């Protein structure tokens, strides 16, 4: 059973920083792409940043230059460093990972439980 365990959300003033972490735990053979998504009240879930197993990275235009995604493959963990936070960054942030559990199974998509980030003005 694979789970994604997120941490690092909270309440912060505009202009400050937060770092989110997401660790994949359980039976894991390999992890392909990992990423962070967010959903604000009344909005659809949107992609924030993604990183492949090879290190290719994509950011949403709204966070470019402020957020940095990284991963530690030895720890099966992905991070999101969020700097210069704005009130519009307020949302529940979800981790997503494409994980293969054994050498003979197909990859499956897993989601974390979500961690709330609130940025006050």
What does this entry look like structurally?
This protein is mainly beta and 121 residues long. It is 0% helix and 56% strand. The chain contains no helices and 11 strands. The strands form 2 sheets. Strands 2, 4, 5, 6, 9, 10 and 11 form a 7-stranded mixed β-sheet that branches. Strands 1-3-8-7 form a 4-stranded antiparallel β-sheet, with no helix packed on it. The radius of gyration is 14 Å and the shape is elongated. The N and C termini lie far apart (40 Å). The model has no long low-confidence stretch (mean pLDDT 96).
Averaging pLDDT over every residue, what do you get?
96
In angstroms, what is the radius of gyration? 14 Å
Q: What overall form do the CA principal axes indicate?
A: elongated
Uncertain runs? none
Q: SS-based structural class?
A: mainly beta
